What we know:
Blueprint (H helix, E strand, L loop, with lengths): L1 H8 L10 H39 L9 H14 L11 E5 L2 E15 L2 E12 L5
Antiparallel strand pairs: 1-2, 2-3
Helix pairs in contact: 2-3
Amino acid sequence: MRAKQLAKSGRVGKQRGMTVIGMLLLIIVIAFVALIGMKVVPMYIQMFTVKSTIESIRKEPQLAQMSTTDIQNAIQKRFDIGYVENITAKDLKIRNERGSRVLDLVYQDERDLFYGLSVVLKVNETIPLTPKP
């Protein structure tokens, strides 16, 4: 009876909503994006921690008087505080170039996603330790 009244008044609308299959597909997509995010975001956080550590060393006033070992020790202390795990200060190469010091930041971070699928972050940068006047 109610359906006839709605049909006569012209208010018969289409059904709205999501089907069970649509809901499952949406949940699968959200879970996949969350999985990738949980693996990739820590890699980038660690990379930015390494870069900020190097930047804080660059700002130290006694950097010009420090030896290469002293610089590496200072960087390693900051890595230990910042929970940097995939790289050590000994992996960083400090060299002289045109009268100033340069740090070569080269490392690779690889994380497994699932079933042999991995995400790799490759960092290859040259960072001047002495600021330009």
